[in-house]
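call fold(seq) -> tokens
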Amino acid sequence: MADAANNVVETINGDCHDFKSLLSSSDRDFLVRNNGDQVKIDSLKGKKLGLYFSASWCGPCRRFTPNLIEVYTELSTKGDFEVIFVSADEDEESFNGYFSKMPWLAIPFSDSEARKRLDEPFSVMGIPHLVLLDENGKVLTEEGVEIIREYGEEGYPFTPEKIQELKDLEEKAKKEQSIKTILVSRSRDFVVTSDGSKVPVSELEGKTVGIYFSASSIKPSADFTQKLAEVYSKLKENGEKFEVVMISLDDDEESFRQSFGAPWLALPLKDKSCEKLARYFELLTLPTVVIIGPDGKTLHPNAADAIDEHGIVAYPFTPEKFAELKEIEKASEAAQTLESVLVSGGLDFVLGKDGAKVKVADLVGKTILLYFSAHWCPPCRAFTPNLVEVYKKIKEKDDAFEVIFISSDRDQASFDEYYSGMPWLALPFNDARKSSLSRKFKVQGIPMLIALGPTGKTITKEARSLVMAHGADAYPFTEERLKEIEAQIEEMAKGWPEKLKDERHEEHELVLTRRSNYVCDACKENGQVWSFYCEECDFDLHPKCALEKETKADAKEGWVCDGEVCTRAS
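ret:
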């Protein structure tokens, strides 16, 4: 075992790794199975290898490992592919527990030096990480995780040529897309009903089909299922040629059953095509309803919002229908009032700090900020104190202003604790209006701050950015106010040099740059708007610090110079 004695990773012909030097050490020429059996490294000759960098404490690893096990099992009959587990676990008990579920080999946990030295040559910056090598030790790809997720065993033997072939086939499939190319796989030409009955995919030809990506464990998805079920049932009653095929991303049978909000169809639970279709349609959010037209072509990438807001009016989901819906939305926005936004049935109030009900009608004529936030959200907790400070400053100047907290908290206690630190109004916890407001303003993440003007019309959905950039000066958040601020900012820098040299940063020139927030590297105070900045070194000088010496040098005794103007010292 002289080759391994140096404990370095050797290569043959410059780009092929020698398996023995790669995987052995000075006192070990074997790998292990989870039952303790030792397997000689020499037995790997002629095989393709996957080096699997993973750990039991890593959530993404635990989710990916079952995928890799499935592919490994499918390929095991070929006899020329092996996976080597390179553990990043911190103790042997964790290693053993995780490895016990794996059907492949591993570098012994005890050989920490051999495990660690593999990180550098294979650019292991994070896990899971899967390096695929051919039988000569040549690296085929370091993107094995993505390849396994995307192509599974179909990617074998994982050569660049094979992967390109699969990509070309995908492109061809998109050009020649039909309901069959979407839903039929090599082993299945049917979809299933809620009771498990099989329905041939061919029966969907000529229909408008909604491919519904769902997970009942995700609340927005679970809520939407009820709405989609209503629309589905009404369209069926009307005799429309419309069908829904659910692509469940749930992990268990019970959750899968719960996703059947109506007697629609589905791919079988954990069908291999589920993840493949999520990639094919570039799934970004749940719920998603991809609309496939009667000709098998994609009509719309996600009609979920339209279905949620307009119901059956959105049918048949054509470009012409969406253009019509856009005009309806424009008309609705033009007619929007505070009461049309915040009043729903008998819910015509918000809560005051004393718990008293404040009528929405009493807020008409004020500028309102709708604050979507939650106690469990770290960015929300970081932003709330800033908003409290801004709120107090604006209220001092203008009482015709209010903030309404719209909570995404998970329980009443969390809501109460979080709201106790806020000086403004709120929707009650778990208020039914929260869902409709989130849909109306397309709230995809929190914190989010929506500004409504005195007429009730939406001024901006980017009020959070304005508050962070300009504080209370952003009020009343209108375009006109932003133009005024912009003019003030430009006037502030009038006469300042575009570039300057400073002895506190001799390496590079400092460039006058717009910076929202920074800490001056000279005075260590917070700065905003303008900085003399070195991007390469991330070095900031506040203008007062950067220009201090320059103005002193320009001035004669008894005079003070500021930019282009020198005045007598008082």
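Confidence is low (pLDDT under 50) at residues 1-14, 551-555.
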